[in-house]
Specification:
D-Maltodextrin-Binding Protein, domain 2; six-stranded mixed sheet
Length: 364
């Protein structure tokens, strides 16, 4: 065999060998997947189901970015399973993914509360900074590991309103015996003031408030609340945003389904979720201003801040409730300590940057 024949034969063999080695990776990269996503919120709900930064928007992003290799079929609350059974369905492998808020599952682990929001906690900027650059997202996976699921942020409302009250709030005593729809840790805090807490899906809030089954209700903010018609059931609309300063939505995924994805599709899911978070909070900020003006000027709504004595009492009750839960569970304590340590540092920066700037805006 001459030199040219030897080199040509060797190169052909090497190429064939390389193709053999690369084939499994190439085949895996081209593999397609079909998932089902359930949702805690009802059909066509803006932000929570449809529109900019919504779960269906996330689904469209994933399909486009993956070239159709990952398709996700969406089912709103009640279309496949009841509203608040999504986490269990994903954990059982009945569906691959679910969109909701992690504080709905605080009964499984109180630590889940911290990944949605913390009363008197950080703003959207601080909360996202903690999740992505302060270890919060890693802790989220650690908390959910026993359930066989993984989670990522999928949207954020920004700061929310305290809620709607059929009667004016003048002091702490007005909360004793009050029947209120309020989820998560805020509900536990209100209970220390004597509130009868009710956890209702979004679609059930208006009829309950209108019929007097409940005396007060919290949902999101001006745009979302107006859409539910809450302004026709109550006229007293309070703010401080104490209970949900940065409400983060959750994308929870079955661990086996997640592990089955190749690395490029995992990266696409993460990136699409991050894009949806940014788009959702931008959309919320864009629509709430007009909605609040409309509620006050055209619907007779009285927008006001909670009395200072109420806010002070809620702050004390929040600190006590958090401390009690943290002391009862080492994992909750771990998450609590991480969140509060990051908050302490972020608060110092926010006090120098955001607070003076925002104060100057209010003086205009």
């Amino acid at each position: 065999m001459d030199r040219r024949t030897f080199l040509r034969t060797g190169m052909t063999a090497a190429a064939a060998s390389g193709a053999t080695l690369a084939a499994p990776a190439v085949a895996r990269a081209q593999e397609s997947f079909t998932w089902r996503m359930t949702n805690a919120y009802g059909p066509n709900a803006p932000f929570y189901v449809v529109g900019p930064g919504s779960p269906t928007d996330f689904i469209e992003k994933v399909e486009a970015m993956s070239g159709g290799r990952l398709k996700i079929q969406h089912f709103a609350a009640g279309e496949l399973i009841p509203a608040l059974e999504g986490f269990d369905a994903v954990a059982a492998g009945t569906v691959e993914t679910n969109a909701a808020n992690s504080y709905f599952w605080s009964g499984k682990s109180f630590a889940a509360q911290y990944f949605t929001t913390v009363p008197f906690g950080m703003s959207f900027l601080g909360h996202m900074a903690w999740l992505y650059h302060g270890g919060g997202l890693d802790l989220w996976q650690e908390v959910y590991e026993p359930f066989g699921v993984v989670a990522f942020p999928i949207n954020n409302t920004g700061i929310q309103m305290t809620g709607w009250f059929r009667e004016p709030v003048e002091g702490v005593a007005d909360f004793n015996g009050l029947r209120m729809r309020i989820p998560g840790l805020a509900g536990q805090v209100y209970q220390t003031l004597g509130v009868d807490v009710r956890l209702l899906p979004g679609g059930e809030i208006f009829p309950a408030l209108e019929r007097g089954v409940i005396d007060a209700a919290e949902f999101v903010g001006p745009y979302q609340d107006r859409r539910l018609g809450l302004q026709t059931a109550a006229k007293n609309y309070y703010t401080t945003g104490w209970h949900e300063p940065a409400t983060t939505g959750e994308l929870v995924i079955s661990k086996p389904a997640w592990d089955a994805l190749p690395d490029d599709l995992k990266a696409i899911v993460r990136s699409a979720a991050m894009a949806a978070v940014l788009e959702s909070v931008a959309w919320s900020e864009a629509v709430n201003g007009e909605a609040l003006v409309d509620l006050v000027e055209n619907h007779g709504v009285k927008a006001a801040e909670l009395p200072a004595e109420v806010v002070d009492r809620l702050r004390e009750a929040t600190a006590d409730t958090l401390a009690t839960h943290a002391a009862a569970d080492p994992l909750v304590q771990k998450v609590h300590d991480s969140y509060m340590a990051f908050k302490a540092k972020h608060d110092r920066w926010a006090a120098v940057s955001q607070k003076p700037w925002f104060g100057s805006i209010l003086k205009v």
